[in-house]
Prior knowledge:
Strand content: 5-15%
CATH topology: Undecaprenyl pyrophosphate synthetase
CATH class: Alpha Beta
Shape: globular
Bound molecules: 3-methylbut-3-enyl trihydrogen diphosphate, magnesium ion
Oligomer: single chain
Strand order of the largest sheet: 3-4-2-1-5-6
CATH superfamily: Decaprenyl diphosphate synthase-like
Helix content: 40-55%
Number of domains: 1
Amino acid sequence: MSARNTIQAENLPKHIAIIMDGNGRWATEKGQDRLFGHLHGVESVRDIVEGAAELGIQYLTLYAFSTENWDRPEQEVAGLMELLVDTIRKEVPTLNKNNIRLHVIGDTSLLPVNAKKELAEAISETKDNEGLNLVMALSYSSRWEIVNAVKLIASAVEEGKLESKNITQSTFQQYLTTASFPDPELMIRTSGEYRISNFLLYQLAYAELYFTNTLWPDFRKENLYEAIVDYQLRERRFGKTGAQVKK
Length: 247
Ligand code: IPE
Ligand code: IPE
Ligand code: MG
């Protein structure tokens, strides 16, 4: 039986964030080049985006490339960028067919010109879609994002648009790249690594974390359902006692 039948429709996370990890090891296990793993990782992206949309998940954030990933061998970075451009170009009709709106978070100024152009077009062509919001974290790192928010807030104070005494958690949230998205309730990381790797440090404050040994190119809808079922078994207390939240 599919884990999908066990999912309670009334208790779905609104926002799921995924660290898609393990492409390189998947390829190495098969005696192939790391890029072969990234290529197959795209298949998983397609399947998971479709699965999330079918379930009625509202936001799906996928960590595709970190700020630190720029330090990988030049050939791997170039291959990943090419794959990115190619995939976006090909996927826009499917995104539109499935009513999916694309967003990007990260320091996109570092991306190659053609990737920036392809992304801008895809964002604009999907902007009226009202189903799943697909957020791609590209050239993203949480420390970059937080420092960037601090700079923006400092400028707003300097320009007299904001008073420092009025800065609240909600103000801060508005200066993050995720300003228009709710915080993820569920964060999944594949490939058996138990770390956050500079992903949504602020936004994951109360997320339920789910780790699986499955490598990203093997991760499919059924694995997503299992993660959601696991999430639904958790008691989310937000600092309160178990008795308080059961009321
Ligand atoms: C995740 O897979 C994809 C990116 C970080 C771009 P990896 O490339 O990190 O694969 P492993 O962790 O080396 O197996
Ligand atoms: C995190 O994976 C970044 C992405 C999945 C895009 P990494 O493979 O870069 O993380 P570390 O280096 O193992 O922490
Ligand atoms: Mg990795």
